[in-house]
Amino acid sequence: MKINAQRLLDNLQRYAKIGEAQKTGVERIALSEEDREARDLLKQQMLEAGLEVLIDRIGNMIGIRKGLRDVPPVTMGSHLDTVYQGGCYDGALGVLAGLEVIQSLNDANVITEKPIALINFTNEEGVRFAPDMMGSHVFAHPELLDEILESPAYDNAQDTVGSRLKAIGYSGDMPCGSMEPDSFLELHIEQGPTLELEKTDIGAVEMVQGIYWTLYTIKGQANHAGTTPVPYRKDAGYAASEVMHYIGDYSRKANSQVLTTVGTISFEPNAINIVPEKAGFTLDLRSVDYEALKQGQIDIDQKIKAVVQAVGLSLEREEMVRFAPVQFDKEVVGLVADEAEALGLSVKRMPSGAGHDAQMMASVCPSAMIFVPSVEGISHNVKELTHPVDLENGTNVLLNAVLRRAGED
Amino acid sequence: MKINAQRLLDNLQRYAKIGEAQKTGVERIALSEEDREARDLLKQQMLEAGLEVLIDRIGNMIGIRKGLRDVPPVTMGSHLDTVYQGGCYDGALGVLAGLEVIQSLNDANVITEKPIALINFTNEEGVRFAPDMMGSHVFAHPELLDEILESPAYDNAQDTVGSRLKAIGYSGDMPCGSMEPDSFLELHIEQGPTLELEKTDIGAVEMVQGIYWTLYTIKGQANHAGTTPVPYRKDAGYAASEVMHYIGDYSRKANSQVLTTVGTISFEPNAINIVPEKAGFTLDLRSVDYEALKQGQIDIDQKIKAVVQAVGLSLEREEMVRFAPVQFDKEVVGLVADEAEALGLSVKRMPSGAGHDAQMMASVCPSAMIFVPSVEGISHNVKELTHPVDLENGTNVLLNAVLRRAGED
Description:
- Two copies of one chain form a homodimer.
- Chain A is of the alpha+beta class.
- Chain A has two domains: about 5-210 and about 325-405, Zn peptidases (Aminopeptidase); about 210-325, Alpha-Beta Plaits (2-Layer Sandwich).
- Chain A has helices at about 5-15, 35-50, 90-105, 135-140, 145-150, 160-170, 195, 235-250, 290-310, 330-340, 355-360, 390-405; strands at about 20, 25, 50-55, 60-65, 75-80, 115-120, 150-155, 155-160, 185-190, 200-210, 210-220, 225, 260, 265-270, 275, 280-285, 315-325, 325, 345-350, 365-370.
- The longest helix of chain A has 21 residues, at about 290-310.
- At the A-B interface, strand 12, helix 8, strand 14, strand 15 and strand 16 of A face strand 12, helix 8, strand 14, strand 15 and strand 16 of B.
């Protein structure tokens, strides 16, 4: 069975206009007016497709297509929110492909044994409100709801998740996590270069890398760059450069099992002729191997402490994120790979480097992800692009995997 | 002969109130209202001390005490402007000590052979308007006047040097450089830790280090930190960290003849989970040895090019400042050392690590500087401090050196 590719592409274009940025991109921040507009359109399309539409208390939108039996639904989903100046596929593809699957089943008058559900999760990106993957996180951990509803916007403490949900009309009354899915499948763009470089059609995602984010602040003393001999300096910037160099080398060693990135840095006072008093930088450390992840963190922490102590500086360290690697369900991963092969597509079993709603759902029900190639691996960027044939292939894999799992009449 | 130490200290305190910052500091940005207030007070005090007051076209204030002969004046001076959140001695000491010298000569009814002049130079710090050492620079190079009058403020292009000089009433009509000094002496705080650490009273400054400032911008490609394997990265931040580490090590090698500082850095997009696309940082390179300065710049440039080329990045390089080392006049330096020793003070012949108006005046007339100790070497900071006894000692050296050079009746 095949989806209607033209309808899918047209629909992706329709949503890309909501929050359009720099012609090819989208800026549709979670809980913004643009988010409301996209949600309103999705709700209308869900109703037109005959779905029962439920909104839970964290604003997740759940559309249910009845099956022959009253059992847990086979569930698809992703998110409609984006980063600032983002692309039009990250998130939206998983939601709109799910809608296309339902429309295609409707077109073919297919009735499944199990119900099928489609979820648009709230605030996956976390750009204005922490934490990210918010909707799926609360779906899996309803006990966090009250606390997260109080979460303030980074840019305006008056705005909370709860107040913005009310403002855009998506503060629902369905208890979070009250629906028990049979399974969960998320179609997503890879956001990395591997599938394209290896000329592979489909990624059957077996796991999500573990992610540790840490903010380090090294403190020394500001001194005049021209008048302070080297032995008298407490140069926080020089210490930071040594550590950052070590961090970069750490993932470039042969057989390294981790990825390291220093993505942000700031010096104080940040003046050309003043020795930096303070240097703050972040470490993004990832691995598919939990032991390697923990050991990498230990090694890097030890190096920083040694550098800082050697020159009489001080160190502050803030753990921002600690996600262990998540394994997806072997059976559901196998289903994705089988259905892709049955469609004549090439498949690579691979990890996800980025975090996704599916990793939260993995603690609720058997879950997996389907990746399609990203041109040049570019994402979180208005230049984000996945070729139409890949959008179509991924959606066909989703359709057939869901159909197999839900059981045809 | 001795100065009136209490009057000097009281006067320093009086000026410290004009633009007072955090109780112990001063913020008196060049050409601001606070600068106007300090200039007005100085003009009044110059007139009360019987000086003829002239304002040149770049706003330098020149007060002249007649001598017996109509010959070039022995000249003292420094600047009343400060950096943001600066101290109350950097600059102000040299001007107010000069005023105290004249008041002391008046008190003792001393008439000198040569005239004596005191200059308050415009905008030595250069915090709002480029270039720094502006007043002395134009004094030495009057041909630059018209261009520099057009120089816009960093924070508001509507404000130019010329417009601000008019606004505060110090756009004078004396042609720049039209006064020919016999010699120039600047008393200044060391702004470094050497005199204090070596328990020395006076620095007889023989030269000013050469200064090269360079802005480097390394360009790579932004990529997702979780999904981009290391071989596919063009990480501008990692390349910058390797170069910065090299730069720091360069001046920490045994027998290094240079000082290196990376004082500023910026990443783009500066996001925790995005590989930096751009890394900009500055190099402050100094040496008393011109050959070592030039070789250091060559070595560092070569390292940067090698790092950037090895990983397929690109580089932009902007030369911001190129000052060769400046030698002061041997005779005037010797005069400073002799007069200090005659007063029973310990003296160290030393270079200046920072730039000063005296280095501009060195191309106009025989020049030198007198340094007094800075507590913990702290400067450009509200905690800047020089002990009263050192302020007094330095001013007494200035008095006696000027008196010797000007010739007593």
